[in-house]
Every structure is written in C-alpha cells, then in structure tokens.
Amino acid sequence: MNIDVNPGNSAASRNNGLKIIDVDTHWSEPLDLWTSRATPKYRDRVPQMRETGGKYVWTIDGNISMGLGSASSVIHETGRKAEGIEFSKWLVQDVHPGCSQAKPRLETMDQSGIYAQILYPNVLGFAGQGKMMSNGERYDVDADLRLVSTQIYNDAGAEMQAESNGRLLPMALLPWWDIKLAVAEAQRCHAMGMRGVNINSDPQTNGMQELSGDYWTPLWEFCSDKGLPVNFHIGASDSSVSWFGDSPWPSMTPAEKLTVGSTMMFISNAKVLSNLITSGLLERFPKLKFVSVESGIGWIPFILEALDYQLHETGAYKQGKLSMTPLEYFKRQIFGCFWFERRDITNMIRSVGVDNVLFETDFPHPTCLYPDPLTYAETSLAGLTQEERKKVLSLNAARCYNIAI
User: Fold this and answer.
1) How many degrees, rounded to 5, is the angle at CA 227 between CA 226 and CA 229?
2) Three-class SS string for the chain?
C-alpha cells in the first residue's frame, strides 16, 4: 500500500481510491457549544468555561467544576505536538483549530489522507456520564439539566456532521439514566443522521440494572433494528472520569501517573467485553453491534481464550445461556480498534478476526498518531494482504457505521 501524502490531493485519490476511516477521534468542544444553543432558562447552567480560583475550568449548573480545565488536545495552534504533559494547560484558543472546528479539521484530514472520522466528546465524559467528579468528590446534577446538556451536544454533533458532508461523525450521547429518554434520544439522533450511540458501560454503579438487564431491552431492540453500533469508549464509566484513574501509585510524577493510568485504561474494556459475552446479551440480540474504542486489540485473543476456558471450568456453559464460544460471539458482533500497536500486529489482527478490526488515530488526544498516521499504519500493516488492509483501514468501519464509500 503506497500512500502519497502530498498536500492538496483528496484523501481518496491519495490512497488509490480507498477512503480511510478513523474510528476514534475527539473534538475540543468550542467554548460556546452549549451557551449558544441553550434557551434563556438554561443558558447560565449548561456547561461553560469559567475562571475559578485563578484557573479556567469547565463548569455546570453555575459554578460546579466538571474537573476539566484544558482543551484535552496535544496539537498546538502552531501544529506541533505537545511535549510531555504541557498540553494540560492549553485552552481551546491555544490548540489547532482543527481540534474544534469542522473546516480546519477536514483540511487536516485531507493532509493526512483520512476520509472520515468518528468523534467522541471530552467535557461531558467519554460517554456523557451523568455524575461528574470534581476534586475526588461526586455530585449530582439534576436530570433536566443533564438531558438538556446531552441534547445540545447531540445537536451540535449533527450540525458538524452536516457541515462536513458526512465526513465527521460524532457518536450520540444518551440520557442513559432514564430508558425512555434514552430510547427517545437515540431515535431523535438517528433521525438526524447520526451513525451510532455512546453509553456508560457501568450503569450498575448508580444502582441501575447492568446492561444485560431487561431495563435496557427497548434500547437494544432499537439499535439492532436500525443498525446503530453501541460504542464503549475507555474511561466511559461513572467510575473512571479522570486521566489518571486509580491505577498509578500516589508517589508518581504527573507524567508517570499519565503513563500508568493511560495504559491500564486500555485494559478496562476487557471487563466490558467479558460481561457482554458471559451475560448472554449477545445471544439475545444477535444483530446488535458493539465497538471497543481506544482499547487496542492485543489483549483480546487472551481474554477470549480465558473466557472460554473459565466458562468450561466453572460450569457456566451448562447454564444454557450461550450457544457459541466467546470468539464466535466476538466475530459476529464486536469490533476492536488499534492504532499504535506494531509488535506481531499481523497475527494479532488475524487472530481477532480481519473483519473485526478498525483503525483509529485518537486525534488530538495524548496518545494520537500525529502528524502522519497513515505512514505509521502502512508500516504496522505491511504483513497483511491488500484486501486485509482495505478491510482494516476502511471497509470494516464503513460496514459498522453504515458509511457510504
């Protein structure tokens, strides 16, 4: 796969007509995303950047800190990538405009050879977690304000998708704390042309049913019927709302904590995958698609093999919930995403399933492939056949997210 990255050419022509789809990126939400769309009743309460204690931080419901004080982007306005953790002090006005705006984002994509990108949020949490955390303390925001904030985010996402002619595809956030509202919002977002939903992976931490419970059946039925993939982005549970998480040792430096926290966050989706399969959810909804986002794929073969072994050892198979092996369920309904992995990646992709692997860059987050992601990908995927590369870089994502290419 020879990739010409001369600026000025279209992404498709640069890749011999193959439209590369990047399935995990983020946008640094514009400062007025919520305030410019809110009614007067909510304008002072929706998420907005305020100066608190001499620092700028995203707040909600007036002066409640949401714990995020930066643009969450490592791409400076000059185009250089941050060194270390200096990005943690950059605001939206300090980072590249392509991090927050459609037109410059498309220009950056054209230069990189990327046709389309799936987008995830920052401010509301990677899955719109209803509870936020500030300085280690949890607090509740009333349901009406959470719903309005979620709907405004989705409205802005649909606008960006339309402005980009379907090349920028934000995943819809759902008011998961109320199943009727969640289904209604999924229906509304589908009607606006949005291609998938993003959801809290651990609602049981809020005293709700886990995702295999009957409570969620109306949502799974709708997503199955409309072909909407359900995305689990790492850090998308109510119990993981910080960059570091609880994995690093307290004595570590911020850079060391980010290293350990980010690494362990990749593995967090192993828990989600294990529960999806073992609970029988995939057995009950055979057409429902799930995506494990920003979690890599190297751990997946081990987890699937371990699940199969343990299901036999514990006798869980005899309970009659499952008619297939974990690997068979995965290949039928689940997608994994890779970006930086290189070591033995050819065998790993074939082990997971060539039809089940998607390509991502994580632009513009700390681990992103920048500035030349496709050269990195070309080196990583050199051991695959041309048809296999097409699937991983484009065709699988087009099938998963119903993208016409």
Assistant:
1) 125
2) CCCCCCCCCCHHHHCCCCCCEEEEEECCCCCCCCCCCCCCCCCCCCCEEEEECCEEEEEECCCEECCCCCCCCCEECCCCECCCCHHHHCCHHHECHHHCCHHHHHHHHHHHCCCEEEEECCCCCCCCCCCEEECCEEECCCHHHHHHHHHHHHHHHHHHHHHCCCCEEECEECCCCCHHHHHHHHHHHHHCCCCCEECCCCHHHHCCCCCCCHHHHHHHHHHHHHCCCEEEECCCCCCCCCCCCCCCCCCCCHHHHHHHHHHHHHHCHHHHHHHHHHCCHHHHCCCCCEEEECCCCCCHHHHHHHHHHHHHHHCHHHHCCCCCCHHHHHHHHEEEEECCCCCCHHHHHHHHCHHHEEECCCCCCCCCCCCCHHHHHHHHCCCCCHHHHHHHHHHHHHHHHCCCC
- Give a yes or no: residue 66 inside a domain: no
* Tally of structural domains, the chain: 1
CATH number of the domain encompassing residue 353: 3.20.20.140
Q: Residue 249 pLDDT more than 80?
A: yes
Tens of pLDDT, residues 29-66: 999 999 999 999 999 999 999 998 888 999 999 988 88
Q: Is residue 385 part of a domain?
A: yes
Least confident of 10-19, 24-33, 87-96, 329-338: 10-19
Residue 263 domain boundaries: 11-28+102-401
pLDDT tens for each residue of 320-367: 999 999 999 999 999 999 999 999 999 999 999 999 999 999 999 999
Domain membership flag for residue 256: yes
Q: In which band, very low, low, confident or very high, does the pLDDT at 170 lie, cut at 50, 70 and 90?
A: very high
- Its pTM stands at 0.92
Whether residue 366 lies inside any domain: the answer is: yes
